[in-house]
Amino acid sequence: MRAPVPRSVFRRTTPAYRFRTGEVRPGSVASLDEVLIGGTPQWVLTRSVDQDQPLLLFLHGGPGDAQICVARPYQRELERAFVVANWDQRGAGLSYRADLDPETMTIDQLVEDTLEVTRWLLKRFDRPRLLLLGHSWGSILGLLAVHRAPELFDGYVGASQVVDAAENERRLLAWARDEALRRGDTKAIRDLQGIAPAAYRSAGEFRRVRRWVDRFGGRARPGTDSRILRDAFLHSSEYTLRDLFRYPRGEKFSVSCLIEQAEKIDMASRVTRLKVPVYFVFGRGDRIVDPALAREYLRVLEAPRKGWAWIEDAAHLAPFEEPDAFAAAVAAFSRQDPVAFPPAWSVAG
């Protein structure tokens, strides 16, 4: 890791790409912008070694797991291959506002926001299309956006692609309970009792299940998740100290507004055909999103080109657990090069 960029109490900033002499690298881009999207100010971080590289919009997970504060330390290889835009979605991270109307927090509105951010980026960089990447919750928005406006996109990458949310939650809860019993973890067994599969009564139940899956290694390799958060916060000049304290409020707000809507998602009935190439990427140990559901969906989904890749030594947080391998696979897909995957990857249609 490079030395942390000093954090400001009041000012948000992202460091420029510089040579060792201190000069800014020509042709690079490093900007943190407040943009009016869907009638409310939202924030976009855009970084690349070379602004002539293909344009990539990365949709974060959650709901509410904004990642402008996480992106820079873990996307260096992506930033070599792409102009990478990270957007803190409506109601999350830097885009959280205490006066934001909860009625605007709908999947449909966030899909429209995704398309508006896309158009803003295309205009800014004078491009006809970009590559869209959605991770977990972001894969719901990403797939729906590409289906709604395929003319804006060169292709779509679904990292931990959500398909049938209700069935996924049933499998997630069942795995957590089985793992608790296998480990003899009486606290986990008690904590998971009384939770109805795929019908969480509160955002607290949603978070409780994921907390145990995290502890059991289904979200990230043991110790990885805490390291990601710690390192990201240490290195993030993009978030002020005040922003870090506000972050949990945005996360809680997003989950409370969106979780019931997310649980009703069934991509197999909503999106049966895409007009752009599509590629799904999963960590081999992912338990938050069941890869089996995504593999079956990809098998029947109609698209010009389809691909699948595993990250062998990762779970749900694969883009941050194995960022270099993740970047290499996304870049290979962008180049339409099916034989250029690193040895840790396998591809299936």
Question: Could you give a short description of this structure?
Answer:
By secondary structure, the protein is of the alpha/beta class.
Q: What would you note in describing this structure?
A:
The protein has about 350 residues and is of the alpha/beta class. The chain has one domain: Alpha/Beta hydrolase fold, catalytic domain (Rossmann fold), CATH 3.40.50.1820. Helices cover about 40% and strands about 15% of the residues. An 8-stranded mixed beta sheet has the order 1-2-4-3-5-6-7-8, sandwiched between helices. Helix 1 crosses helix 8 and helix 5 packs antiparallel against helix 6. The radius of gyration is 19 Å and the shape is globular. The two termini are about 35 Å apart. The C terminus is likely disordered.
